[in-house]
Write a structure and sequence with these properties.
The structure is a homotetramer of 132-residue chains. Chain A is mainly alpha-helical. In chain A, 64% of the residues lie in helices and 6% in strands. Chain A is built from 5 helices and 2 strands; from the N terminus they run H-H-H-E-E-H-H. In chain A, strand 1 and strand 2 form a beta hairpin. The longest helix of chain A has 26 residues. Chain A is elongated and about 55 Å long. Chains in contact: A-B, A-C, C-D. At the A-B interface, helix 1, helix 4 and helix 5 of A face helix 1, helix 4 and helix 5 of B. Chain A binds a DNA duplex (15 and 15 nucleotides) through helix 3.
Chain lengths: 132, 132, 132, 132
DNA sequence: GTGGTCTAGACCACC
DNA sequence: GTGGTCTAGACCACG
């Protein structure tokens, strides 16, 4: 598991954790039944307060992605993968739609928005490729 | 001027107002020298707290998009259009890049992201076309 | 609203708050659209830390009983009453069944359990009547 | 001995073990002087951590229900039966009262609580009858 | 004023 | 060791 937390993301830290864990489950990086690192370990690794990680765990429990095993740790729920795939889809779809919506409403033509998207995609791919 | 405010947008209401006014100036819907409606009128129209509109005005002054004319109201600055065109570009670019970035980091392939984008674009166009 | 919090209840404080608010909505003591007291006020009244109340609010949001109105407070969701009536039913049913189950499994005859229940009911009614 | 452990009971596993052993002694299923299975065997049978069983044994010793016989195991104390009958009474009474109390405080009428109880009783009897 | 987030540190029960 | 709860206090954005 390799998480990147950006405190200035607009999104709360705990929510970034939630998303990234859901993405990891959706990708199969985390498989149902597997135990995730302890709250304390995650907190240390991400350089955030354990309570902040705990807040994310609360949400992931409510979303039935993780379940606590008393005294042992947090495990990925059976059936979480399907759930997370759907969540990823909707999280990203919602964000993409909002973004496109704003672009169009700003007066840009669809073609112009598409150009910007392609440029953003190239930039992101380059950054990702370069980062590896 | 036709603004759409969405309280559950993630973006603060005042920031949505700032963006939409900048977009309107960029588009030429608002032209330099033109007066914009009073804070009270805007607040009533958008169904938000006058303080919220005030907060947006404050930002727009700082960005030199609007200037207060004593006793008369707020006017679009001369030269604001160029400024707003640049702002629009960077605001949208930044948001697009962040969105694409998250999509890629979630594990989706670029091609898959492009599909989602195209679908979002269609949806948004349909909504825009239908709404008019 | 008149809440009774018992720190030694076995149930976490935040969960007692959740239950009592759900019960109040179910009873119609809190009606949809109504604002509930602020987190700080509730905390002061219940003599607990504001964060503890906040934890309850998180849960109530997740359960779609309350919704935050930015900068204004927490409001009872439309449709929350039906939800809360169902919740109350299932919360109490689950607890009653578990209790009865344990009693039967302890070897007591059904008739004997019923006697104990009736005595408990009388006791509780007397306590409630006396308390008023 | 036939124990049913439910990890999601709210009650700690070790406490469920304590209760069920006390109930068994109260019922005469376990008689004074009788040896109970070893911690290891019980742990395997109940599918729980041996430490958890150990924690229960510790409590049962403190309550003078079991006594360790050096090198041989744990035996039911002489006179434990009377103790356990009283314990069962008070454990169940306390739990029933707390349950009824919450039901009444939620706003339900006594008659309504009685109906729920009767339904719970039927359900539990059916489950017990069906399970045998 | 409101809710929301985060940190720090303590304590608990459980396995 | 684990997760869960609670307190205390700070800071932020929003209206």
């Amino acid at each position: 598991m390799q998480f990147r937390i950006d405190p200035d993301n607009g999104l709360a830290i705990w929510e970034q954790i939630v998303r990234q864990i859901k993405y990891a489950v959706a990708e199969g990086v985390l498989v149902p039944g597997e135990m995730i690192p302890s709250v304390r370990d995650l907190a240390r690794e991400l350089m955030v307060n354990p309570n902040t990680v705990q807040r994310a765990m609360q949400q992931l429990q409510a979303d039935e992605v993780l379940e606590p095993l008393r005294g042992r740790g947090m495990a990925v729920c059976t059936g979480a993968r399907k759930q997370c795939l759907a969540d990823r889809q909707s999280l990203l779809r919602q964000r993409l739609e909002a973004t496109v919506d704003e672009a169009l409403q700003s007066g840009l033509a669809a073609e112009r928005v598409r150009e910007m998207f392609e440029r953003a995609l190239e930039t992101a791919l380059r950054r990702k490729g370069g980062g590896e």
